[in-house]
TrEMBL record:
Keywords: Disulfide bond, Transferase
Keyword Ligase appears in the UniProt entry: no
Record-linked PANTHER family: GLYCOSYLTRANSFERASE FAMILY PROTEIN 64 C3
UniProt keyword annotation of Transferase present: yes
Domain Glycosyl transferase intervals: 75-329
SUPFAM superfamilies attached to this UniProt entry: Nucleotide-diphospho-sugar transferases (SSF53448)
Name this polypeptide is given: Glycosyl transferase 64 domain-containing protein
UniProt xrefs under InterPro entries: GT64 (IPR053318), GT64_dom (IPR015338), Nucleotide-diphossugar_trans (IPR029044)
Pfam families: Glyco_transf_64 (PF09258)
A GO CC term assigned to this protein in UniProt: membrane
Single annotated GO MF: glycosyltransferase activity
Length: 352
């Protein structure tokens, strides 16, 4: 989860049609008029691309008919961006495709600069879709190949074992409509001193969000997130910050279900992106997995930014739908189930 790597060069920004525009100041040699003209053209092009994708996937005929969706199977949406991680992404996609409950696997590739030749060799059972932009909102694209009521949304460096995925799906089937079911909990609280919302790790037995590292969501919520005009300004925040799409989805789900998410604990989950991995063998993930793509965080700044997102979403929507959940649905004993490579062994990531 988290934002893609970005340049550290200084930028200025302004808003056009709700989009934040940040041109590089290296172009300062251009006249102000010329720079503004080019900037407006680039912005209008970006809006047209993003709007075109929304129009294509949010038309009435593109929205899945609930009566035609299979309740007994699961679609997996995998997000990809880093070309260095393509071998891992291919192997993860193939593993999901082999699961008996998975009807389809869709890889949403959001790096527009990747040559088509690099995106070959995915298994035949995997659908590859190049998104119109690198927007993190595209993680919830209601792709027309989805033919199931439930969708597992996952990072490109996470793979649950078969039992974990099956248990999460069964829990989702028994949950209230609109609920998110996930493995990695987080929370929010009101910072009274600073008069803002704060993002935090889940407290024992209490949480209000689950991460897109891996969660199960109803396909109807994908359409609501991606297509709802009411969420347009909030989606623009996600684009501006290159972060927080999972928080916004938790807002959407909490409002739909009227309750918090459901935390499950079952099986095991291999987590190549967790910074607590100590294996530096690039062939097994290693350092390359820690430093690129969707799972890099950013220390304290990352947590602060996500608190800002909660505060901004609350302001834009005019309400705070997030609700706390307590306890979890357990199949096996243990803690948060991410597995990291330590000393050549796979162990729970928080195990020393």
């Amino acid at each position: 989860m988290g934002a893609h790597k970005e340049s550290n060069s200084r930028h200025f920004s302004f808003q056009v049609n709700g989009y934040s525009v940040e041109p590089d100041l290296a172009a300062a040699s251009m006249t102000s008029h010329r720079r503004l003209h080019l900037l407006l053209l680039a912005t209008l092009a970006a809006v047209a691309v993003a709007g075109g994708e929304e129009e294509a996937f949010c038309r009435g005929e593109s929205i899945q008919d609930a009566a035609m969706l299979r309740p007994d199977r699961l679609t997996v949406l995998l997000s990809g961006y880093s070309e260095r991680r393509l071998p891992l992404l291919r192997s993860i996609a193939a593993a999901y495709a082999a699961h008996p409950l998975v009807l389809a696997v869709v890889v949403l590739w959001s790096n527009p600069s990747t040559p088509d030749a690099l995106l070959s060799s995915f298994p035949p059972a995997v659908t590859l879709h190049r998104t119109a932009s690198s927007s993190l909102n595209s993680r919830f694209l209601p792709h027309p190949s989805i033919r199931t009521a439930a969708v597992a949304v996952a990072d490109d460096d996470i793979l649950p074992d078969a039992a974990a995925l099956s248990f999460a799906f069964a829990t989702w089937q028994r949950s209230r409509p609109g609920s998110l079911v996930g493995f990695f909990p987080r929370s929010h609280h009101l910072d009274l001193a600073r008069r803002r919302w704060a993002y935090a790790a889940a407290q024992p037995g209490s949480y209000s969000m689950v991460l897109t590292k891996l969660f199960i969501v109803g396909v109807d919520l994908l359409s609501k997130y991606f297509c709802s005009p009411e969420l347009a300004a909030a989606r623009a925040v996600v684009d501006r910050e290159r972060n927080c799409e999972d928080i916004l989805m938790n807002f959407v789900a909490a409002e739909e279900s009227g309750q918090g998410p459901v935390l499950v604990e079952a099986g095991s989950i291999r987590d190549w992106g967790d910074p607590r991995n100590d294996d530096v063998n690039a062939g097994d993930g290693g350092e390359a997995m820690k430093t690129v793509g969707l799972s890099s965080t950013g220390g304290t700044e990352h947590w602060e930014k996500r608190g800002d997102c909660i505060t901004e979403f609350h302001r834009l929507l005019g309400r705070m739908p997030l609700r706390y959940s307590y306890g979890k649905v357990v199949a096996v004993a243990g803690g948060e189930q991410g597995l990291c490579s330590k000393g050549g062994r796979l162990v729970l990531c928080d195990q020393e």
